[in-house]
Amino acid sequence: MPLPRFDRLPAATRDEILAVARTHFARDGRDGASYNQIIADVGISKTSAYHYFDGKQDLFDAVANDCVARARAALGPWHPTDDVPSFWEQLRGSSAHLIAYMAEHVEDRAILDMAQREQGPSDWTWAMLDDAIERGLVAERERAVMGVATQGVLDALDAEALRNPDQSESLAAAIPDLLRRLWTASDVRN
Fold first, then answer.
1. DSSP state of 117
2. Could you tell me the pTM of the whole model?
3. d(CA 101, CA 150)
4. Torsion over CA of 103, 107, 108 and 111, rounded to 10 degrees?
């Protein structure tokens, strides 16, 4: 996490630092990017940089968090639906927004592919799952385990789409079927 002084910088300055760092990390990788070169390209002193970040990993984490926030904004919030067809329609639409965003923001895609994945379901996944429960697609008693399993499916598809952007649309098209199978399998009792 950036140090508190970073958050007190003007928004335009924070955005510039993150944009320059994003370009370096996307081009050179997390390990290959030079902290000193990023600082030089931003136009700040090394002393100033250490007032904002503990080092290169801290800067990378700030860039990755910014990329996650930007991708989540492109995905948009999950809105409760009125019926099952609307649920699947919203899921397809959200996926399409995210795919379009990633196609236009290659650097973000590269950073997200390098970044550590979140642990556990995101707020978006919980909102989507709660709507699925409301629509009768998932049993409420299975919410906790289905949240983790659903996030696992979404993370696996995201990782594959980040590595193979030319397959993003077909992977997104597979989401409803994969989730139906996951959620239906949870109802099967031996």
1. P
2. 0.79
3. 22
4. 130
